[in-house]
Queue: 2 jobs
Job 1
Amino acid sequence: MRDLTEANVTGAVLDKIADDTDPRLREIMEALIRHAHDFIREVNLTPDELLYGARFIQKVGQISDDKREEGVLLGDVLGMTALVEILGDRVRVGATESSLLGPFYREGAPARDMGFDISLDDEEGEPAFIHGSVVDSNGNPIEGVVLDLWQTAPNMFYEAQVGQPKEYNDYAYRGKFRTGADGKYWFRSRKPVDYPVPTDGPVGLILNGTGRHSWRPAHLHYLIYKDGYQTIQTELFNNDSQYLDSDAVFGVKETLVIPYNKVDDAARAEEYGFQGSTFYEGAYDFVMKDDASVKDAEAAYSQRASMSAD
């Protein structure tokens, strides 16, 4: 029998990891155990506090469903997601920078034709026309790229979010677009708005308990993928948002901030399918990096990002 003490408990746990454990799993678990034990010592964690932490994790799982992932939000507000994406960008040099997936990605967004209005003709908010190109590192257009995108409605809620004050058709403000030979994309929507991340769950306890606000700068989410290229997971932020320097989840990067220019042109508005003469225009060109190892990109990322995945 081995008597555990503060001095040897960490080693005792590390010794339980089998010799044939996958090397990457071993690296992660050994570091996790060491840092977790050091954290307990640093703050002199009590048994009641450890039990509270266990219940907190349990509640994170209980509030999550196929339309909201509290675990992702937890990583976001702690800056863990931002740090992981910053480290990941080291192998994506030359491509569009990454940003956060967020807790409201939904698998299964329908395919849309170019020019489609993802707001599904919502009359709230300000009309917006968003367009650009997807090119490789040499500036050549890429055909067959899927842009899977989503945003909040003008009322600051995602369409299926708990507490949504307006009934929307399923997958409103979402859609998948596929580029043609010219690599271009374009669609209609409503200009993104600032909005708060939900605070009705466990993550809200962290924000409220530490005096932090819950606001995110207005943005559009993008997943961009095609076999043979690194997948892009990113966000484009409105340059007029008041929260660019205080994003609750630390997702803003300077290269991802774009202007929405106000246009008053009846002919162009009619061409794009808007009522009236005024709309906002946003433009951005995405750069993808070659990667021959990427195969079945759409299915692979769907499984990775889906909240129902194992």
Note: The first helix runs from residue 9 to 15.
Job 2
Amino acid sequence: MKLVLATNNEHKIREIKNIMAGLDVEILTAADFAEFPDPRETGRTLEENAKIKAVEIYRVTGIPALADDSGLEVDYLNGRPGVMSSRFAGPGCTFADNNRLLLELLEGVEEQKRGARFRCVAALALSENDVRLFEGTVEGRITAHLRGKEGFGYDPVFFFPELGKTFAEITEEEKNEYSHRGRAFRQVAEFIRERLLRDAVK
């Protein structure tokens, strides 16, 4: 089975490949194609955006495509930045810009009110009309300052109580085990494994 990852984000590609290692699947990325679209995330939910990306890549390549959309939901901000997580600080913003804005908005907010969660919705497009959705969630809280040098995005400000560290202070292996993306893509991997086994029996 071939599978195209519908993302140009090198961080995500590495994480997904590690999570799905061991599957008898050839994983392709944008680098394997002369032309590779960059679908616009016009959806109003993580589910819609993940589906848009997966279906568009399937339509162009004719190969089952896997996409995800992830967001940080902060309780004090009524669920923001949510679907706008990657563009929270405006068009062309960087990870640092987003983290800076988030910490500014939460300045002075007491710890017990800084609850947050990462959500990841993965969409597997087996055809244009057959798209399976998988969701992973992890609970934590927002720190008062940046902590750690690993990971990307909001990892330096997302404290994970179970390990007593931010996602930027843990190893890549630990993050794959506990993260929202790890939880969503392990479900994808299990679905593919069951499908491959079922096809092998036929």
Note: The mean pLDDT is 91.
